[in-house]
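Reopening: structure tokens for the magnesium ion complex, inputs below.
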Amino acid sequence: MEKTLVLIKPDAVKRGLVGEIINLYERKGLQIDQLKWFEPDEKRLAAHYKAHEGKPFYEGLMSFMHSGPLVAMVLKGENAISVVRKINGATDYIEAECGSIRGLYAYSKTENCVHGSDGLDSAACEIDVWFGE
Ligand code: IDP
Ligand code: MG
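Re-run output (same inputs, fresh job):
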């Protein structure tokens, strides 16, 4: 059973899409292993997005991620990492497939509703950032 880290970002929480989004993952056979509500501090968000530090969108991304509460989850299932990224859709809401979360709900490049780990190493790292001791 593979595990992956999902964030339901502040835009989706504000818009009341938490239930809708969790429903899409569950219907695809993914199970909730851990789930927690966060108002994350600078340190946790910087650790989560350390790969993007210095990129042109980094500051905007960080201030968006600080704009309200978010939900962090560990989802588990066969090929959970790839399955979640498929359900999430492409990063850019214009490119995102119609039935994906971003295809359905996102209308901004930065405020795109969800995060999913992009590989085994990042999943382990991100699960530790949000749910480690
Ligand atoms: P991902 O979330 O699909 O894995 P990443 O490339 O890892 O996409 O980027 C992390 C997050 O940074 C995106 O989900 C989005 O919120 C934001 N982001 C990425 N690229 C851009 C951009 O070109 N403009 C604005 N925000 C961006
Ligand atoms: Mg990413």
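The radius of gyration is 14 Å. The pocket of magnesium ion (ligand 2) is lined by residues 118 (CB under 6 Å). Marking as resolved unless the reporter disagrees.
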